[in-house]
Amino acid sequence: MVVGALLSGCGSNPYTDYVRDPDTLLIFHNNSGPMCLEALDWLGEMKAQHPALQVEEHLVTQPAETLLLSQIETEFSESNGVSNRFGYLPIIFYQDQAYSGFNQDVAAALQVVMEASDTGAP
To answer: Which of 33, 70, 85, 88 is the most buried (most CB within 10 A)?
Structure first.
């Protein structure tokens, strides 16, 4: 497995005991691709509109972050994003939903979930 090869010799996994909080938006990105940059810009706007929104950013250029991404992906059978098989970055996890890739449809879906979370709606 490539992830295992990347981590060999890198020390312990800092995410061994990691527990994902569904109320925290996790975004895994490379900080360079067009969908990643668009998502990061959008996320900046969302943080301003939803000040209570908790966000964790993870750069997939770091081996431990890639390992965490693989670990979290196993919790989901598919993505609701551009790719249903986690084929595109960014990959976003929020409120027990997964989104791979980013476009206006993904932004709209995430915004609905954020607004429901703001009001406490199920």
So the answer is: 88
Which residues are registered as beta bridge partners of 27? 57, 92
**What CA–CA distance (Å, rounded) separates 81 from 91?**
8
The per-residue pLDDT for range 30-60, each reduced to its tens digit, is 999 999 999 999 999 999 999 999 999 999 9
pLDDT in tens, 68-114: 999 999 999 999 999 999 999 999 999 999 999 999 999 999 999 99
Q: Give residue 16's pLDDT.
A: 81
DSSP class of residue 18 equals -
Neighbouring residues of 25: CB distance < 8 A, sequence distance ≥ 6:
43, 53, 54, 55, 56, 92, 93, 94, 110
| Nearest-angstrom CA–CA distance, 92 and 84 | 12
